[in-house]
Amino acid sequence: QVLSLPIVVIVHGNQDNNAKATVLWDNAFSEIERVPFVVAERVPWEKMCDTLNLKFKAEVQTSKGLLRDHYFFLAQKIFNDHSASMEDFQNRSVSWAQFNKEILPGRGFTFWQWFDGVLDLTKRCLKSYWSDRLIVGFISKQYVCKLLSTEPDGTFLLRFSDSEIGGVTIAHVIRGKDGSSQVENIQPFSAKDLSIRSLGDRIRDLGQLRNLYPNIPKDQAFGSHYNSEWVGME
Predict the structure, then answer these.
(1) Which residues form the SH2 domain (predicted)?
(2) Can you say how many angstroms the Cα of residue 50 is from the centroid of all Cα atoms in its chain?
(3) What CA–CA distance (Å, rounded) separates 192 from 32?
(4) Residues 195-217: pLDDT tens digits?
C-alpha cells in the first residue's frame, strides 16, 4: 500500500476543469488521518487564499504571488458581497458549492472555472507581464473606474475579464475637451488572440494608450515585451 495525491478519472475533456477543482480541494483541505474521501465542506477563507496563491505561483511558474488587494477582489467575487470590508472576509468560510458548484451571478460559469481560465491564460501568454507586475489583473471594473477617473487622458491598466473565461482587458481613460472623463474597456483578449499578436505589441499599436497606471510611460513599462521585428520596422 502507498499513499498518493488524489486522482480523478474522467471520460471526456470537458470534465477536466471539475476534476482539477476536486483534486485541488482534496489536496488542500483534507486531513491526513481521515475517513477515505471525506473532506471538509467549508474551509476558512484565509486557507482558501493561501491555496489559490500557491496554485497560481505553481501553475504560472512565477515568484510573484497574489496580493492583499487581489484577495479582497476574489472574496467579493466568490461571496457575491461588495459591502463587506477586507477584515470581514477574513472571518468567513467558503464552501465547496461557492468554489465550484454555484454559477456566479449574471455569468455562465463558477468561481473555479473563471479562476482556472485566468491561470491558463497567464501561464500561456502573460507570465512575463505578471512577473514584472504590469498586470493588476484581479480588480473589479467598478474599482478601475474609481482609480482611473481622476487620471490624465490615456492612462490605462490591465485586468482579467469578469465576463469571459480566460480573457485580459485594457481599461483606459478618455478625457473630453470639457475635462470630463470616461473609462473604456477594450474587448478582452483571449489566449488565441495573444498567440497571434502578443499583448505588448497590441499595447504598442493602440495610440490612445499612453501611461500605465499610475504614471509609467507605456514604452518604458512594456518596451522589453515589444517584438523586435516590429520595433525595427518603425
Answers:
(1) 114-213
(2) 15
(3) 41
(4) 999 999 999 989 889 999 988 99
